Amino acid sequence: MGWGETFRTALESLNGRRLRSLLTMLGILIGIAAVMLTVGLGDGARREIDRQINNLGSNLLIVAPGSGTSLSGVRTAGGGSSLTLADAAAIADPAVAPDVAGVAPVVSTQGAAKWGTNDWTTLVTGTNVAWQSVRARVLGDGRFFTADEQDRAETVAVLGPNTAARLFGTTPAVGQRITLNDQQFTVIGVLASVGSSSMTNDDDTIVVPISTFAQRLSGSTNTQAVNVIYVGARDADSISAAHQEITRALTARHATTEANRDFSIITFEALMNALNTTTAVLSTLLSGIAAISLVVGGIGVMNIMLVSVSERVREIGLRKALGATPALIRRQFLVEAAILGLLGGLLGVVAGIAGAAALTPILNLEVSVSVPATLVALGVSLSVGLIAGVYPATRAAKLAPIDALRSE
Amino acid sequence: MSDVTPAAERRPLLRMSGVRKTYDTGAVKVEALRGIDLAVYPGDYVAIMGPSGSGKSTLMHIIGCLDVPSEGSYLLDGAEVAQLDETELAQIRNRRVGFVFQQFNLLASMTALRNVELPLVYAGVGKAERRRRATEALQRVGLGNRLDHRPGELSGGQQQRVSVARALVTEPTLILADEPTGNLDSVSTRDVLTLLDELHDAGRTIVLITHEADVAAHAAIRWRIDDGLLSETDLPPAASGPEEGGRHGLG
Lengths: 408, 251
Known about the structure:
The complex is a heterodimer of chains A (about 400) and B (about 250).
Chain A: H1 3-15, H2 18-56, E1 60-65, E2 83-84, H3 85-92, E3 100-115, E4 118-127, H4 130-134, E5 139-142, H5 147-151, E6 156-159, H6 161-168, E7 177-180, E8 183-191, E9 205-209, H7 210-217, E10 225-226, E11 228-233, H8 239-253, E12 263-267, H9 268-311, H10 313-321, H11 326-363, H12 371-398, H13 401-406
Parallel strand pairs in A: 4-9, 6-8
Antiparallel strand pairs in A: 1-11, 1-12, 2-10, 3-4, 3-7, 3-11, 5-8, 6-9, 7-8
Helix pairs in contact in A: 1-11, 2-9, 2-11, 2-12, 9-11, 9-12, 11-12
Chain B: E1 14-25, E2 28-40, E3 45-49, H1 56-63, E4 71-76, E5 79-80, H2 86-96, E6 97-100, H3 112-123, H4 127-140, H5 156-168, E7 174-178, H6 186-201, E8 206-210, H7 213-216, E9 221-226, E10 229-233, E11 247-249
Helix pairs in contact in B: 3-4, 3-5, 4-5, 5-6
């Protein structure tokens, strides 16, 4: 008996018990779909975290006043901030902090912008030219301000894409003049969108040179204070070195100790690790559930194959009388169990893909189904079927033909 | 035993000597066969009769290589069967024996053609050849126009003819029919017995197990089994009615 005939017979037999076969596959289906979604969710979450952190600026460190760890960095200028422009200048000195590539001190305030009859209140950020590279921002239109414009404190502004849309609608923003807290500014650029982020709204802001901000927008007399300093490390490996250098420099400048320091440094390594750990724990948990589901599915296959063997005792007896060897009978039932497993796995993959497509908009997270994960899932489902089939198939093979034929 | 055939010098197709079968059911030992000696020669048509519990079924199983004797020797076509394992027995059954069962034992999900092909599948015969031989066998039993019918769409007599075709298709050494007419009406019974007669006339060796004398009457040689021992019966070929004829003790 060839393999083709074995498969044909197995398919005929499963087809003759369609409902039962489908129900049997359900266990495997759920297990495989769960595996696929788990892997997809884990990958999606990891990618989303990476994306959000890269949007903030790669290799970014945030130096914030106080010992807290507020991520927003939004405080009104001069509100007793312990950080100054001189601190920023010190960190930017390669002799002090050789692992620092860029330093962008930031002051910010709420500002009311007007263009014609449109007005929009948003966060106004005063910073230097390094901000663009440290925060890894790209211009969607126009340009960022230059060091020259910053030195001369020119009234130029770069808008976030959402801000531009609020003020100008579909009119090109670059070259227009807007009023910002009663001061005239020229729009020279519009930032490209970085998408929504749970941390800050980086698409709705107005960026101006920090010197201009101090002269025209700041309500404070202390023009030296800054809200936050963004620091870009040279590369991912130098983040912790930069962290140490900044800590040492600022501790010395503020004449304090590391224990009582009046600033804090936030890096995203720790945050990323924490999030990745959470994701990993979640993945492990879901994988556990998926594994249990597969084991239960396997037991279901075994159970139904045992039922099938006892129902088909006569058929087995007849096949043996007609010359089927025990090995062929075993193969017959193994193939049936393997097909149940594999078909269940295939349906599970389909369900997993459908589930991923359905979850993506709900979770606002790209739940993807990878090809290797699919292949592994199919391999696993086939193995579950085969393993579950061993015992029933062996029982069928061992049936004595006379007992089998005698049964009614 | 050679006295039952005219040509004693021919090699027997089946030879049993001192065959015993004991079933050990834990506490009780049941002796189903208590020393059977027999020989069947090529072309013989043998009927074995006996009431239930006589050891008839056990003898049939051993003749058909579905079971092996506890003691004694059984040569089928010159090969010693008694010591074979399950796989070897399966191959012997496939090549040497064609079964016709009382319950027909056709697979309900398959067409007549596929049912008849089944022994050839296990013999490893290729698809086209299988189809050709199965078609021929079905034509031989007069069902050439029923190839694609499933057993449920055939009458009992037709089903039994399919099963005769299945028994024929491998060109076996021996056709072993176990109460082939037990589930048939009188018309179908005559059909099937006529078919067996024709096969015998064509030179086939047939062993028929039955408890009905008029069925046994079709066979040239009739044996009786009682309490695990075999004897001859001299029932005249055309006779009918209860088969209480005199017996000759046999070994």
